[in-house]
Amino acid sequence: MSLYRALQGSPLILHLTVSQQAAAPRTSWTKEQISEVYNQPLIDLTYAAASVHRRFHNPAAIQMCTLMNIKTGGCSEDCSYCAQSSRYNTGLKASKIVDVESVLEAARIAKANGSSRFCMGAAWRDMRGRKTNLRNIKEMVKGVRSMGMEACVTLGMINAEQAKELKDAGLTAYNHNVDTSREHYPSVITTRSYDERLATIDNVQKAGIHVCTGGILGLGEKPQDHVGLIHTVATLPAHPESFPVNALVPIKGTPLGESKAISFDAILRTIATARLVLPTTIIRLAAGRHTMREEKQMMCFMAGANAVFTGEKMLTTACNGWEEDKAMFEKWGLRPMESHETVGGQQELHQKEDFDAQNDGVSGLGRTEPFTSSPAENIAAV
C-alpha cells in the first residue's frame, strides 16, 4: 500500500499538507500516527521524506560538525553503552578538563577544515558545584563564536541559571539526548531519569538556546522504541533545532559491549520518519557513521539527514576524517553547509533559492512552489 493510500483521510495527510507551510511544525503527533509512517514500505517512506526534505532544506548542503571531548571519563552514571562511565572497565583513562586555549586551537583546525559547528562534551552527570569549569567553558564558547562558528556543548544536566549563563556567553546549541523511548530507557540507564533529561531540555529551551536532542539506535530496543524516541522529540513544546541519530558503537567492558550492529533499514527508517515528523529540524548523522559505506550515507542524506560529525575522533569512538568527507562531498555533488543562526531548515533558505535557480526551479524529487491546499494533490507531489 502506498504512503498516500495508507494515510488518506488520516490526520497525517493534514500534517503533511500544513507542514509544507512550516510556520510552526506540529507538536501534537501520537505514537500511533508516527508508527503508521515508520512502518510504510521503505521505498514509499524514503521518497516522501526526500520530497519534504527538499521543500525545507537545500539537499546539497550538509553541515560539518566537529566534536571534542573536553573532559574524558570518570563519569558516575551507568549508561550501559558508554566508555566514560567509571562503573565499567573499558581501559579509558579519566582526565581533567582541557584548558581553554587547547580547545580553541582544536576549533581553529576544525574551522580550517570546513566545520561550521564545534561541539564540546564533558563526561560528568551534571554541573553542580562546577563554577570554575562553567567559567572556563563560557570562555571556550565565546572563543568559538568569535571565529564565526556555532558553539554546542553537552555537559549533562543543567539548571535554569546555568542555561542562562551559557546563553549569555553566546552558546548556539545544547546537546542532551533522550537516547531512546521512555519505555526502553530504564533498560539502558538507571542513574538519571527520563524526566530529568526532559527537565534539562526544558531549561535549555526556556533560556533561548537551540536544543539538540536525539538518540542511539542499537541499545537492544524494538522498532516501536524508535517510534517512541521520535514521539518524545516531536511533542516537545517546540521542535529541536537538531536531531542526532547515533548507531551504537559497542565498547568492550560496557554492558552493551557485545551488541550486534543495528540494521541499516532501521537507521534509514528512523531518519526518514524523523524528516516527515520534524520537517525543519537538522538531522545529524552521528556516532557509527564510520561503519557505513558512502552509498548508504548518501541514502541517509536523500532521506533527510543534513549534518555529519567529522574530524579526528567523536568523543571516544572513531570518526570519519575531514579529507574523507570532503572527497565524498565532491563525489556526490554535496557541499559544507554554512554556519546558521536560525532554527532548523530556514537557515539556508536563501541558498536553497540559489540552488533552485541553478536547477531551473526544479529541486529533484521535490517542488519549489508552495503545495496546494488539496491533501490528495499534496501527497501525490510528495
From TrEMBL:
Note on how the cofactor is bound: Binds 1 [2Fe-2S] cluster. The cluster is coordinated with 3 cysteines and 1 arginine.
Give a single Pfam family match: BATS
- The entry marks the following residues as binding [4Fe-4S] cluster, namely 75, 79, 82
Q: Which cofactor does the UniProt annotation name? A: [2Fe-2S] cluster; [4Fe-4S] cluster
GO terms under biological process: biotin biosynthetic process
Keyword Iron part of the UniProt annotation: yes
User: Pathway it belongs to?
Assistant: Cofactor biosynthesis; biotin biosynthesis; biotin from 7,8-diaminononanoate: step 2/2
**Region of interest called Disordered, as start-end residue ranges on this chain:** 357-382
GO MF term set: 2 iron, 2 sulfur cluster binding; 4 iron, 4 sulfur cluster binding; biotin synthase activity; metal ion binding
Query: Could you name the domain of life of the organism this protein comes from?
Result: Eukaryota
| Keyword list, A-Z | 2Fe-2S, 4Fe-4S, Biotin biosynthesis, Iron, Iron-sulfur, Metal-binding, Mitochondrion, S-adenosyl-L-methionine, Transferase
User: What sequence ranges are listed for the domain Radical SAM core?
Assistant: 60-289
Residue positions binding [2Fe-2S] cluster: 119, 152, 212, 284
Enzyme Commission number(s) from the entry? 2.8.1.6
Q: Name one GO cellular component term.
A: mitochondrion
- PANTHER family, alphabetized: BIOTIN SYNTHASE (PTHR22976), BIOTIN SYNTHASE, MITOCHONDRIAL (PTHR22976:SF2)
Database matches in HAMAP family? BioB
NCBIfam families this protein is in?
bioB (TIGR00433)
Family statement drawn from the similarity comment of this UniProt entry: Belongs to the radical SAM superfamily. Biotin synthase family.
The molecule here is called biotin synthase
Taxonomic lineage of the native organism = Eukaryota, Fungi, Dikarya, Ascomycota, Pezizomycotina
